[in-house]
Write a structure and sequence with these properties.
- It is globular, with a radius of gyration of 23 Å.
- The chain is of the alpha/beta class.
- The chain has two domains: 8-323, Divalent-metal-dependent TIM barrel enzymes (TIM Barrel); 325-385.
- An eight-stranded parallel sheet has the order 8-6-4-3-2-1-10-9. The chain has a two-stranded antiparallel sheet with strand order 5-7.
- The chain has helices spanning 16-19, 37-47, 56-59, 66-83, 110-129, 152-172, 197-204, 219-224, 229-238, 266-278, 297-323, 325-334, 350-358, 363-367, 373-385; strands at 12-15, 51-55, 89-91, 134-138, 143-144, 178-182, 191-192, 213-215, 246-247, 285-287.
- 37% of the residues are buried.
């Protein structure tokens, strides 16, 4: 049997809010006792994780005194040192407190917008202090239930102003930090602005420092909208903007389920892992998921190990797919090219356009070619089922 135990080079990370989730939901109270950030770091050390990520108030309660803050940080840093766990990413909670009931950066209230900037600057300082190189922004309340309440163009402008301000803050402080924007279509708002990875990529191009800003796509968020997550990640990769990624699983069209990675859509998870590995993605593989509400903390460890183990199994399956002679023969046949059309591709010229307009194509012959996609997909399934 292959070794599916995680190693530091796998860069598997979890958030304090993931393994620390106590199972509370809108219909029921907590089923697990809360653990301190230091205790959660030690739990992650037990299961072999590489890193831990946090929202500012996952680590330091929002009303903590200076003495309480210092004590929590001291324990947290000791747990990091004892376990070898690192902090690759941090983020700000701009959604939980009542002040953010109508958004943070897009709020109609200027005091809320100013407080959101203040809170984020302080949280950035904390993240950098603990070693974070990526800072994620999820606008959980940046949206509406009715468009009577906000002008969406104004909301876009306010979002841009906030990101430009914070980019300048990072540059002024000379922090080695990049931003990653996380999209979600809905929940907890009725509709959230910049709802997909494609929206975020378009928005980034309007910023003053687009080179500092990329995306943090999440499996569940794209699946909620019925979208193909692999395609969204491909767009981010191709544009050089995949700065971070959230791995979990989700049934299409449901509420945000945050299941263990690979628990629902195994073939989609396979092609995602294959694409990340084939393209040598080198940032964190962050599991933004939760254990079932049925579990105690031993079950939470099973959940965390399961996320990492499934990724490594799928990584091995991807290598087998790439090495399978029959599969690669079909792939080569699908992409076979005799070079006769090369003259028409590449940079436009009037001569090229004229020649292409005169080219004769035998549509019946071209359309009559079988592509063997059924066989290729079945062979993929057999790889996943262990039959090859």
């Amino acid at each position: 049997m292959s070794d599916y135990n995680p190693k530091p080079e796998n860069k598997f990370t979890f958030g304090l809010w993931t393994v620390g989730n106590t199972g509370q939901d809108p219909f029921g109270r907590s089923v697990r006792e809360a653990k301190s950030p230091a205790e959660l770091v030690r739990l992650l050390g037990e299961v072999g994780a590489y890193g831990v990520n946090f929202h500012d108030n996952d680590l330091i309660p929002i009303d903590a005194t200076a003495a309480e803050r210092d004590g929590i940080l001291k324990e947290f840093k000791k747990a990091l040192a004892d376990t070898g766990i690192v902090v690759p990413m941090a983020t700000t909670d701009l959604f939980k407190e009542p002040i953010f009931k109508d958004g943070a950066f897009t709020s109609n209230d200027s005091k809320v917008r100013a407080y959101a900037l203040q809170k984020t600057m302080n949280a950035i300082d904390l993240g950098v202090e603990l070693g974070a190189k990526i800072y994620v922004f999820w606008g959980g309340r940046e949206g509406t239930e009715t468009d009577a309440t906000k002008n969406p163009i104004t909301a876009i402008k306010r979002s841009r102003e906030a990101m430009n301000f914070l980019c300048e803050y990072v540059k002024d402080r000379k922090y080695d930090l990049k931003f990653a924007l996380e999209a979600k279509p809905n929940e907890p708002r009725g509709d959230i602005y910049n709802s997909t990875t494609g929206h975020m990529l378009a928005f980034i191009n309007t910023l003053d420092h687009p080179e500092m800003v990329g995306v943090n796509p999440e499996v569940a968020h794209e699946h909620m909208a019925g979208l193909n997550f692999v395609h969204g990640v491909a767009q981010a990769l191709e544009s050089g903007k995949l700065f971070h990624i959230d791995l979990n699983d989700q049934a299409f069209g449901r509420y945000d389920q945050d299941f263990r990675f690979g628990a629902v859509n195994l073939k989609s998870a396979f092609f995602l892992v294959k694409m990340l590995e084939d393209n040598k993605y080198d940032s964190s593989r962050h599991f933004d998921a939760h254990a079932y509400r049925t579990e105690d903390y031993e079950g939470v460890k099973d959940f965390a190990r399961g996320c990492m183990r499934t990724y490594l199994i799928l990584k091995e399956k991807a290598a087998k797919w790439n090495a399978d002679k029959e599969i690669q023969s079909i792939v080569a046949e699908i992409n076979a090219d005799d070079g006769s059309m090369d003259q028409y591709f590449g940079k436009y010229s009037a001569e090229k356009a004229k020649a292409l307009k005169g080219q004769v194509f035998d549509r019946a012959v071209i359309a009559g070619r079988g592509l063997k996609y059924e066989k290729l997909d079945q062979l993929t399934i057999e790889i996943l089922l262990g039959a090859r």
